[in-house]
Amino acid sequence: MNREGLKKILKSYRTPFEEEKNFVAEFIALTEDPLAFQRERKEGHFTASAWIVNKTRTHALLTHHRKLSRWLQLGGHADGNENLMEVAMTEAREESGLISLKLVDSYIFDIDKHIIPANAKDPQHYHYDVRFLIEAAMDEPLTISKESKDLAWVSYETVPDVVAGNESILRMLEKTSKSEFVY
């Protein structure tokens, strides 16, 4: 999937969640910016994430992000790669050490626009996060990367408490725990 492929998929993206519906036009517009996939676009840029779940959909793999000090899904910057599905898979491998990752569907699973606070290197900016649903085996060993404080398979029942009400994660959780969203 390149920039044009992403734009085409975004134009056909449908979701019952209002917050996602509100992002679609901005995501499509961003595909027109030559720097959309680069960190150098200081207002905001594309990122890609992996919502990693076990096959029976009872647990999600979360990372305790070192810089943000919050439990989140795995993912990261595109750094010029317009194939966000590839970015999500690469980030998932690098941040978890998992090898048996299986992309459930090549279609976008979720999108989210969120603010990233300023730090020593970058001003406050937006991440336009494109997310993909990935399955993995819970018995495979995990490797914590330098970007994380911890990794954990979190049961669906405890995800809301662990992520402290993060609405975008709760939305992905709902998509994988309700029968009408089964992928």
TrEMBL record:
One of its GO terms (molecular function) is hydrolase activity. Residues 43-176 form the Nudix hydrolase domain. The keyword Transcription regulation does not apply. CDD domains: NUDIX_Hydrolase. Keywords: Hydrolase. The keyword Acyltransferase does not apply. Pfam families: NUDIX. It comes from the Bacteria. This is NUDIX hydrolase. The lineage of its organism: Bacteria, Pseudomonadati, Bacteroidota, Cytophagia, Cytophagales.
